[in-house]
Design brief:
- This protein is mainly α.
- The protein has two domains: 37-89, Orthogonal Bundle (Arc Repressor Mutant, subunit A); 109-220, Tetracycline Repressor, domain 2 (Orthogonal Bundle).
- The protein has helices spanning 3-17, 23-26, 38-52, 62-69, 73-79, 83-90, 109-123, 126-139, 143-171, 180-197, 204-220.
- The longest helix is centred in the last third of the chain and has 29 residues, at 143-171.
- The chain is elongated, with a radius of gyration of 19 Å.
- The N and C termini lie far apart (39 Å).
- It comes from Micavibrio aeruginosavorus (strain ARL-13).
- Residues 38-98 form the HTH tetR-type domain.
- This is Bacterial regulatory s, tetR family protein.
- Residues 61-80 bind DNA.
- GO terms for molecular function: DNA-binding transcription factor activity; transcription cis-regulatory region binding.
Length: 221
Amino acid sequence: MSHAYALNQIQTDAAMDDGGLNSVQTAAPVKSGRPRSEESRKAILDATRRLMLHTPLRDLSIEAIARKAGVGKTTIYRWWPNKVAVVIEAFSDQLDLHTPHLTEVSMTTTDALMAQVDKMIRHLRGRNGRIIADIMAEAQADEGVMALFQAFYMDTRKQALQHIVYQGQRSGEFGAVIAPDIAADMIMGPVFFRLLTTRDGLDERFIEDYPITVLNMIRGA
């Protein structure tokens, strides 16, 4: 299943859950027409990436993307329900959406947890962090955007952490008092809190100290 199809379907489902009240603004039905032109697709995604270098998500528009890509707005809406869906696909590699970080066979769960937390923090620094923060801001006022963000970003990270904690509890490396899903929330919470509320909260000191703090918490739970 392509990103565009899946993103479109999630937006449609979210609008239906909301009684269809926001369906015009936040959802578009999945279309079964002609397949999208790969050349146009690449132009749209490249235009989005270039615009996002200097444009906050709130100021980005489908019109600007279409103009930069040299396509019509209807071409974009044929494949994506809104600008956030375009951004998520455009930055899918940078946002690391394709590879949930499950424990490798050669790693202990302690090593896997430390590596996962370190990678999560480093990934959210710089431009990636700004894009994620912008999407989270948009999601507060749009249930469709929230559904996209949950499905294509937050859920993969939470599931990876849950898996590591669960395996560590089974092996006896971690305490078994905290449920894995709650442990994942506890691990991710401070990272995203700092992303949204501080300017340099994800600095090198935090990267160095926080994985150890997480490990001590999970081991003692």
